[in-house]
C-alpha cells in the first residue's frame, strides 16, 4: 500500500511517502509548501499521484491555519484521486517518536497543547517523572519544563517534529476525507465580521 502522509499543524510541516511500511522519502518544510513537497516526493520515487492508495493527515492540535491547510490538501487530493483518508493526532505522532515522550505543542497565548487534548500553561503541566518533553512547545518553554523535572532534547532534535512517516504507521481506519475532523481544543482567534 502506497501512503502519502503529512502533518502541517506546527511551524515545521512534514510529508512522507510510505510503501508497505517502508519510508520512500520524507520532507520537512513549512505548511505553505505542502503541495510542492508532495510533488518532490512523488517525482523522487518515480511515481505519480494516481499511484497513491491512501492519505494520512495530521489532525492537530496546533496552529489553526496550519491544521486547516493539511486537511484541505488531504480532502482535495482524496476527492480528485478517489482515495481513502485517515487522520492521526499530531500529539500521538510526536509521542510515538521515543520512549517516555511527552508531546508538547505550542498553543500560543502562553499555553501548550498536550494529550487529552488540553491547552494548559507550561508551568501547570502534570507530567510523569522522567518525561522527555518533545515538540515545538517543549523547545519554546524548555526552561520551565526542565525546572519541573523534564528532559528536553536539543532544539535541533528530530524528536521535536511530528514526523509524517510515524503518522502512516499510526493510521487506523480509512474512510471518506470529510469524516476526518480537526482537533482544535479551543476556538480560533479570528471572528467573522458582522456589519451593524
Could you walk me through the main structural features you see in this protein, from its secondary elements to its overall organization?
This protein is of the alpha/beta class and 196 residues long. The chain folds into two domains: 2-90 and 162-179, 2-Layer Sandwich (Nucleotidyltransferase, domain 5); 97-158, no CATH class. It is 27% helix and 24% strand. The protein contains six helices and ten strands, in the order βββαβαβαβββββααα. The mean pLDDT is 95.
Keywords for this entry:
6 helices, 10 strands
Find the CATH topology of the largest domain: Nucleotidyltransferase, domain 5
Structural class call reads alpha/beta
Q: What's the total number of strands?
A: 10
CATH class of the largest domain: Alpha Beta
Number of helices: 6
- Count of domain modules: 2
The CATH superfamily of the largest domain bears the name ATPase, nucleotide binding domain
Spans of 5+ residues with little confidence (pLDDT < 50)?
Answer: none
Task: Provide mean pLDDT, rounded.
Answer: 95
For the record, the CATH architecture of the largest domain stands as: 2-Layer Sandwich
Strand content: 15-25%
- How would you sum up the global shape? globular
As a percent range, the share of helical residues equals 25-40%
Distance between the termini: 54 Å
Q: What strand line-up does the widest sheet have?
A: 3-2-1-4-5
Element-by-element helix/strand order: EEEHEHEHEEEEEHHH
User: Over all CA atoms, what is the radius of gyration?
Assistant: 17 Å
Amino acid at each position: 500500500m502506497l501512503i502519502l502522509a503529512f502533518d502541517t499543524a506546527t511551524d515545521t510541516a512534514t510529508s512522507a511517502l510510505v510503501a508497505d511500511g517502508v519510508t520512500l522519502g520524507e520532507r520537512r518544510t513549512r505548511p505553505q509548501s505542502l503541495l510542492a513537497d508532495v510533488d518532490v516526493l512523488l517525482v523522487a520515487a518515480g511515481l505519480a499521484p494516481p499511484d497513491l492508495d491512501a492519505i494520512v493527515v495530521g489532525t492537530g492540535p496546533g496552529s489553526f491555519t496550519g491544521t486547516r491547510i493539511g486537511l484541505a490538501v488531504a480532502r482535495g487530493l482524496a476527492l480528485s484521486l478517489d482515495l481513502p483518508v485517515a487522520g492521526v493526532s499530531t500529539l500521538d505522532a510526536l509521542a510515538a517518536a521515543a520512549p517516555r515522550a511527552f508531546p508538547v505543542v505550542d498553543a500560543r497565548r502562553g499555553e501548550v497543547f498536550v494529550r487529552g487534548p488540553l491547552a494548559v500553561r507550561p508551568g501547570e503541566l502534570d507530567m510523569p517523572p522522567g518525561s522527555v518533553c518533545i515538540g515545538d512547545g517543549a523547545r519554546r518553554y524548555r526552561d520551565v519544563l526542565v525546572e519541573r523535572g523534564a528532559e528536553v532534547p536539543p532544539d535541533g532534535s528530530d524528536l521535536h517534529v511530528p514526523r509524517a512517516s510515524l503518522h502512516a504507521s499510526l493510521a487506523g481506519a480509512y474512510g471518506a476525507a470529510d469524516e476526518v475532523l480537526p482537533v482544535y481544543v479551543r476556538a480560533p482567534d479570528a471572528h467573522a465580521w458582522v456589519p451593524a
